[in-house]
Specification:
The chain contains 4 helices and 4 strands. It is α+β, with helices and mostly antiparallel strands. It has a single domain, classed as Alpha-Beta Plaits.
């Protein structure tokens, strides 16, 4: 299952990481092999947005721990769909609309 994983570093930890050239990030990304990764500033914090295929929830600690330990980061997981996934969900959405969307 595809997940968007958001990794937010506290400012102090991000500053320390910047001074070392963010040398741990390439290693973590090489291990996790995201489909895509973007770095942004969100709420004043350095934030990474990764898209990963996670087969089992038991993989979550292996994904989160490097970010926790290396950057004191907050890590959030969000299920994510491609357009094909949303299309596959169409019948379930239609059933819910018929059952619960009527006034």
């Amino acid at each position: 299952m595809r997940f968007m994983v958001k990794v937010s570093m506290p400012v102090e930890a991000g500053n320390l990481a910047a001074k070392s050239g963010f040398d741990k990030i390439p290693k973590i990304l090489a291990e996790q092999k995201p489909e895509a990764v973007y770095f942004v500033a969100e709420h004043g914090k350095r934030t990474g947005v990764l898209f990963l295929d996670i087969q089992d929830v038991s993989q979550i600690p292996a994904i989160a721990e490097p970010w926790f330990l290396a950057f004191n980061a907050a890590v959030e997981f969000y299920p994510a769909m491609k357009p094909e996934d949303l299309a596959k969900a169409g019948p379930a959405i239609e059933r819910a609309v018929k059952e619960y969307g009527q006034k």
